[in-house]
Amino acid sequence: MSILVVGSVAFDALESPFGKVDRCLGGSATYFSLAASFFTPVDLVGVVGEDFTDEDMQVFSGRDINLDGLQRVAGAKTFFWSGAYDYNLNQAQTRDTQLNVFATFKPELNEQQRKADVVFLANIDPDLQMDVLRQTAGPRLVALDTMNYWITSKKESLGRIFGAVDLIVINEAEVRQYTGEPNLVKGARQILSLGAKTLVIKRGEYGVLMITADSIFAIPAYPLESVFDPTGAGDTFAGGFLGYLASRPTHDDRELRRAIIFGSVLASFTVEKFSLDRLREITIEDVRSRYQMFRALTQFEDWEG
Amino acid sequence: MSILVVGSVAFDALESPFGKVDRCLGGSATYFSLAASFFTPVDLVGVVGEDFTDEDMQVFSGRDINLDGLQRVAGAKTFFWSGAYDYNLNQAQTRDTQLNVFATFKPELNEQQRKADVVFLANIDPDLQMDVLRQTAGPRLVALDTMNYWITSKKESLGRIFGAVDLIVINEAEVRQYTGEPNLVKGARQILSLGAKTLVIKRGEYGVLMITADSIFAIPAYPLESVFDPTGAGDTFAGGFLGYLASRPTHDDRELRRAIIFGSVLASFTVEKFSLDRLREITIEDVRSRYQMFRALTQFEDWEG
C-alpha cells in the first residue's frame, strides 16, 4: 500500500522568539514523507537545485522513501522560504519566497507512481494538482492541501480540484476565506458540497476537526510545554494521517479517527524542535507511546445516573 | 449537596451580526444558577435594583434555586452591561458598564449559605471573593472565576485568592496576561504553584483544558451550526461543571472530566439563542442526550497493531 506525495522540498530560514536558523531543511513533501514513512512506503515527487547536497539528502535515508521522482536540476537553486513567528506561534509571517526550481516544476509520474494506492497533492498550484491527479490510475484515496494564496489567485481552479479529490486538508482560516462563511461547520458543508467526502480542518494549537456527511470528529492538539517551531506541522500531520490510512485495508470512520490521532501525534513532535530535527530522531515506539498519551488526554467516561 | 454562588444578576444589552437586544437578563450568577440547578440545589447571593421586576424573577422559578440571598434594593438600578460581538464571537467588545447596586455590594452569608458544600465565587473584586470565602465553614470545594480587569487593577489580591481556593476557572488569554508566559501549560503551572489544585482554562469555541499536578484533560467545544450569542457561556460552563460536581460524592479525575463535559454541554446550549432563552427551555434529557453526542464527537479507539 504505497503513498505518493507531490510537493516541495525546500530550504527554510526561520526566526521565532526561541531562536533563528538561516538555512535548514523544509518543504511540504519533506515533512510529509518523513511522517508517512513511519507507516507505509512513500514515493516522493519533487524538485531541488544543485545546492541541495548529498548531506541534505540524508534526511530521507534509512527510511522507505523512494526518491526516483525527486529531480535535481543542475545550475539551479532549491525553493527557498523565509518566515518568522512571534509568541503567537499560530501564524507565520512570510518574509521571502524564492521559487527557483519550483517555478517551472511540472511533475511527470512514472509507471509505479501512477499506480499509487494513496495520493497526497501537497500545497502547489491547483492546476498542477489537477494535472498530477489526471496522471494517476484510480487511486484508493486522493487528498490535497492548499493555502490562502491559491484561494485569492486561483479560486476557480481550486473549486475544480476540491470536487475531484476524496479528502481535503485545510486550515480553519482558509475555510472561512474560501466560503465567506464565519461558522466553520456551515463553511465545511459548503466545501463538501463540491464533491469531496471528508474535510479535515487544521486549527493549529487547537487541534483538528474532521467533518463528513454523517460524522464530526474533534480533537485538541497535544498540549506541549516546549513549542519551538510550528513550521511543517500541517504537512507532518497530513503525512501521519495519510501514511496510517495507506497502511490500512479500510478507511471507515474508526480508521479515519485513529489516523487523525497519528497525524496529531507526529505534528506534536515536529514542533518540539526546529526544522525536521525532532521528526528525524523519534521512533515508531515514541509515536505509539504518545498515541496512548493522547487517549489519556481526551478520554472521559459515560455518565452514570 | 448544595452549591453557593456569589456573583452578578444583571441586565444586558447585546448586539451581534445575528441580532440586537436592548435589555435582557444576564449576570454571572444568573447563568451559573440555571446551569447548576440541573444537578443540585443552588443558593444564590447577589443584588438587584428596583427595576428587576417579578417577571424578571421568573427566570429562577420552577428550579431549586434559593433566593434568600438575592437582595432587592429600593430606589436603585440593577447592574447593566452592554456588549457587542462581530463575526468572531470569541471576544465581546464592552460598550458600557453601569455598576449601579453592584458598586456597594458586600455579601453577608446567612447560616445556611455559610455551610455550603461547594462555593463558586463568580467574577467580582478579588477582595470581595476573599471576604466571602472567610465567611464559609470549610466547604468541600471552592472555585472562582475572574477577568482581565482584576488582573490589571488588583493583581496582588488576585494572587492571594488564587492561593486560597481549590479550583480556578479562567480564560486562556487571562492565563497569559496574569503570568506573562506565552506557553499555556507553563502558565498554568505557574498559577497552580500559588496553591490551587485544579486549573480549568476556557478557550471559547476551542473548548476547555483542565490541568492538575498529574493530569491534563483537553476537550474541544461542541461544534455548532448556529451560534447566536456567546454571552454567559463561561458562567454556564462553570454552573454545569460545579453543579455536577456538587451532586457527586467524590471529585476524582474521572468525575472532574465528566463535569467538564456537562459544563461544555450546557454552554453549548446557552450560545444557541440570545440571553438565557435556550437555557430556560432545555431539560435534563436534552443535557444527557448532548453528553452522548459529545462522546460520539471525541471518541477514538486504541490502536491495533
Helix content of chain A: 25-40%
Secondary-structure element order of chain A, N to C: EEEHEHEEEHEHEHHEHHEEEHHHH
Distance between the termini of chain A: 46 Å
* Interface with most residues: A-B, 43 and 42 residues
- Count of alpha and pi helical runs of chain A: 12
The SS-based structural class of chain A is alpha/beta
Quick one: biggest sheet of chain A? 9 strands, mixed
> Overall pLDDT of chain A, averaged?
95
* Uncertain parts of chain A: none
List the strand order in the largest sheet of chain A.
5-4-1-8-9-10-11-12-13
- The oligomeric state of the chains shown is homodimer
Radius of gyration of chain A: 18 Å
Strand count of chain A? 13
Globally, the shape of chain A reads globular
Q: β content of chain A, as a range?
A: 15-25%
Using brief descriptors, characterize the structure shown.
homodimer, 305 residues, alpha/beta, 9-stranded mixed beta sheet, 4-stranded mixed beta sheet, 12 helices
In short:
Chain A is α/β, with parallel strands linked by helices and 305 residues long.
Secondary-structure map with pairings?
Two copies of one chain form a homodimer.
Chain A: E1 3-6, E2 10-16, E3 19-26, H1 28-36, E4 42-49, H2 54-57, E5 65-73, E6 79-84, E7 93-98, H3 111-114, E8 118-121, H4 126-135, E9 141-145, H5 148-153, H6 155-162, E10 167-171, H7 172-179, H8 184-192, E11 198-202, E12 208-212, E13 216-219, H9 233-246, H10 253-270, H11 277-281, H12 284-298
Parallel strand pairs in A: 1-4, 1-8, 2-6, 4-5, 8-9, 9-10, 10-11
Antiparallel strand pairs in A: 2-3, 6-7, 11-12, 12-13
